[in-house]
What we know:
The complex is a heterodimer of chains A (519) and B (326).
Chain A: E1 7-16, E2 19-29, E3 34-39, H1 45-52, E4 60-65, E5 68-69, H2 75-80, E6 83-86, H3 98-104, H4 109-118, H5 135-148, E7 153-157, H6 165-180, E8 184-188, H7 192-198, E9 201-206, E10 209-215, H8 220-229, H9 243-250, E11 256-263, E12 267-274, E13 279-283, H10 290-297, E14 305-310, E15 313-315, H11 320-325, E16 328-331, H12 335-338, H13 345-350, H14 365-379, H15 394-407, E17 412-416, H16 424-439, E18 443-447, H17 452-457, E19 460-465, E20 468-474, H18 480-487
Parallel strand pairs in A: 3-8, 3-9, 6-7, 7-8, 13-18, 13-19, 16-17, 17-18
Antiparallel strand pairs in A: 1-2, 1-4, 4-5, 9-10, 11-12, 11-14, 14-15, 19-20
Chain B: H1 2-8, H2 13-21, H3 24-41, H4 48-73, H5 81-95, H6 101-124, H7 130-151, H8 161-168, E1 170-171, E2 174-175, H9 177-194, H10 196-206, H11 208-213, H12 218-244, H13 256-265, H14 277-296, H15 301-323
Amino acid sequence: MTSTPLLDxxxxxxxxxxxxxxxxxxxxxLPGEVHALMGANGAGKSxxxxxxxxxxxxxxxxxxxxxxxxxxRSPAAARRAGLLPVYQEPSLIPDLDVLSxxxxxxxxxxxxxxxxxxxxxxxxxxxxxxxxxxxxxLRVLDLARALAVEPDVLLLDEMTxxxxxxxxxxxxxxxxRQGDSGRAxxxxxxxxxxxxxxxxxxxxxxxxxTVGVVDIVPGxxxxxxxxxxxxxxxxxxxxxxxxxxxxxxxxxxxRLGVRNLRFGxxxxxxxxxxxxxxxxxVVALEGQxxxxxxxxxxxxxxxxxxxxxxxxxxxxxxxxxxxxxxxLAYVPGDxxxxxxxxxxxxxxxxxxxxxxxxxxxxxxxxxxxxxxVSAIERLRIDTRAQGEVQRLSGGNQQKVxxxxxxxxxxxxxxxxxxxxxxxVGTKQEIYKLLRELAGNGKSVLFYTSELEEVQRVCDRxxxxxxxxxxxxxxVEEADEPALMRAAYGLPRGAxxxxxxxxxxxxxxxxxxxxxxxxx
Amino acid sequence: MxxxxxxxxxxxxxxxxxMADRPLIPLIILLVILVVILQxxxxxxxxxxxxxxxxxxxxxxxxxxxxxTMTMLTGGIDLSVGTVATMSAFxxxxxxxxxxxxxxxxxxxxPAVLIGLVNxxxxxxxxxxxxxxxxxxxLIGTGCLQVYxxxxxxxxxxxxxxxxxLGTGLTYGVPNAxxxxxxxxxxxxxxxxxxxxxxxxxxxxxxxxxxxxSGVRYWQVISALYVISSVLAGITGLLYIGLIKAxxxxxxxxxxxxxxxxxxxxxxxxFGGRGGYTGTIIGALILTVLTTLLTILQxxxxxxxxxxxxxxxxxxxxxxxxxxxR
Lengths: 519, 326
């Protein structure tokens, strides 16, 4: 291809303090193409998108638009340069009606209406307040608003997430046609089926660097997974853990049973068991329903269908206290969500003790102290700054959120990405602790965004994609490439030549052939 | 005593650190300074009688400020305390004419419990902002009291002897009101530091979501809190009518905003999660002494108020600077 790229970014870097979110990213988009931007969690996709759309300034790098160097300093400047993003979060102002929202951005109304009809929503009243419009429709309106100003480069971030199948199909059709008219689309998606059906080329990011640009041809997804993993492609094998035996014998009556759980569009059908003495890993890309799964198990949200069983008995949780009474303790990924930051370590650990009405009376300080101290010692929390939890380091804060449930002696711990953003030493301690808990007959459900953690900690891995359990691995098969493939919804053991691109069902974005669970 | 200890260490950072660790000390120093100024302006005014009087007037303010402290710890506020105190005082004074004192007491406490419950349910269940909720119930309460006043206008009012004794009496020069206040204050301090309920007040104000994840039902805590706050306000009303001895429809209203100020001066954060009752008690004493000080300055009412407001702002800002220095 000889034509000048519409957008050509090279050597883009971005540092947040000492942390490099992007090191050396490049992206070149030709006229008329739909270009996929891919990368595992934390590879730098969102940072690159923010830089391209002027939301954050780059620390280094060169961005050419139609061959001219442009300094895109604000979203408005990006818009003038012909670059328009549609983000995952709806961007209409909820308290204004659609028409006022259009005026706010100077979007012409008639083209907008035409696009809305084109995208499969024939009966939109543009006088409706944005707040009253369902989420899926709002995302389509965002897209229509972007299309109406005819941008040269349209940037779509997980556009089809949260869309019902009929709308998603229309959206993909429109995106594909966008390429025909000489414009370009940058398409960010976790779904290989969409990418294979839609895109011409893909740029793959890993650890803040562009590691490859590939043409989308049948079988390329193996290559993409390889690029995303990099050196980590080496297959590792670990022996099955002893706990597997325990799990197998206890399988007749699992500690926790999840049956066909559904929640809105986020959780479509999730079933699995968790046995006593087991650490079960959950692996999923961002936003595949894992948040909702944990929230439902913690009693924070009520599932719309399906059942949760504890020790074989069906349970209904209306408040987290119900889950806690059933012995399920939830450790959220965001520490700020679980801690009273101005209070002491002791009060934070002892918080669940006072929760029930009957425990509102005088506190037995000596007994509380004994329990808290033993939990602090077990997790080796650094208590030099124990007066206020906010003065502790991130790792120590995370330990406090876990210590709380050790002190409360919870039987099942639901850990949501407990090692996010903490130091390596503390990570090791947390791995060890989770194994110890399992050794003591407790059970742990462990979501992690770092695939390498799975083989260190888990007995079994549950892979979720698009709100469904797509695979359950025994730990000895759960090496990073296998998990990465499964997390992208690719069937296990797929060879390069019979990848999903060759699959006859690939036209449906919902395809997630689960090749059965482990025997 | 503690002042000499401070002077012996070098000034600067260590002093600030010391104050930050013991937030009561700067408050006590301020109180002493105010008393000294008073003594300089009017030599001889600070005597046993003056102290007893100051304490008598500070106690109702301190109890109402206790209501504010507890509600502010959860990030709330209770503006209905003035109305509740007035209602219980007014009902007590009018019902005791024809009723047994015990019955009159129960009748007097009824609106307190009721308003507290409505506040608690409004804030805890329906999530109305506490400022709006308590302001609303306060207005409703005032309206009800005006209606009630017409029905009792004929029978007149009297102050029960016991309340007068409690409100104004002295035993060996010590105000009798301390008999009520000391156990009450001890109970509040104990509740805040050593009971599950007290812990929850701090935790809810600091991070409500975290308490929910720990199994705390927000509405239970908030409902109990506002009922307790209202009952305390009702008791204050009875004490206050024994002190003022003139029932009126706006008896305790002037105490509402000073009670908020006392809690804030005492170091309780209006954003929740931080503070305590001992600081509030000293805050109430500071405000009472300040009022006396401004009264003897013989300046016009308007100027006095302006000065009062400025001093409250200045003291609070200075205090927060000292205590939050890290």
